[in-house]
């Protein structure tokens, strides 16, 4: 049997909107927090923009009251922890794409703004764990909410060189964070960011179909 030879190249994957569609659980938990605080509750569709960016940043925009942000975060987390977290669905063909990338020898790391305990639960529940070398996410206290800082932390912790890697994500915070770390990125359009958002915020390349992702990443890494 031919063994897979690892390379120095690596890929950082966003979670929500890239590996899984988490809309019902996230928007429902935001609605719960807003309702509990006495705010008008937007429709689920009108809350899709909160998927991807750091939670505190989203509540700061929704509430326009910094003093309530931490309370809203705790209300959200209670609802999300008690059911919303598993109201998600892996995108079609995503497991096949990850398998191809692993067979090509790439090291894969999760890089998400979701708090790591929640991200780990999602990854394990849906069967992603075996594809990743390590999981990285935000801390519950807000550390590494900023994806630029999170990528820098991953590079330092793993001894990786930015130009040998690629960030894969669906929102501007993914592509901008990669650019700020001198790392190429692939913006995926099956999530919650469109071509305009991704192209306007530093994406090296775009990918519209999960089936095309391995070849698109390989092309970007070859420069």
From TrEMBL:
Keywords: Hydrolase. It comes from the Bacteria. It holds the Pfam family HAD_2. This is HAD family hydrolase. GO terms for cellular component: cytosol. SUPFAM superfamilies: HAD-like. GO terms for molecular function: hydrolase activity; protein tyrosine kinase activity. The lineage of its organism: Bacteria, Pseudomonadati, Pseudomonadota, Alphaproteobacteria, Rhodobacterales.
């Amino acid at each position: 049997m031919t063994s897979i030879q690892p390379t120095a190249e690596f890929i950082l994957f966003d979670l929500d909107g890239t590996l899984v569609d988490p809309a019902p659980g996230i928007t429902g938990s935001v609605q719960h927090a807003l309702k509990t605080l006495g705010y008008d509750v937007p429709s689920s569709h009108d809350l899709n923009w909160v998927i991807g960016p750091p939670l505190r940043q989203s509540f700061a925009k929704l509430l326009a009251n910094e003093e309530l942000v931490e309370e809203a975060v705790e209300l959200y987390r209670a609802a999300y922890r008690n059911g919303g977290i598993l109201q998600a669905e892996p995108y079609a063909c995503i497991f096949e794409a990850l398998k191809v990338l692993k067979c090509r020898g790439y090291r894969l790391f999760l890089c998400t703004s979701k708090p790591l305990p929640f991200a780990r639960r999602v990854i394990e529940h849906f069967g992603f764990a075996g594809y990743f070398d390590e999981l990285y996410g935000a801390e519950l206290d807000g550390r590494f909410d900023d994806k630029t800082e999170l990528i820098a932390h991953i590079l330092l912790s793993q001894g990786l060189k930015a130009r040998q890697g690629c960030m894969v994500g669906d929102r501007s915070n993914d592509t901008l964070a990669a650019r700020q770390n001198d790392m190429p990125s692939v913006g995926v359009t099956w999530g919650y960011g469109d071509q305009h958002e991704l192209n306007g915020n530093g994406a090296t390349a775009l990918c519209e179909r999960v089936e095309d992702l391995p070849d698109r990443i390989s092309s970007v890494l070859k420069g």
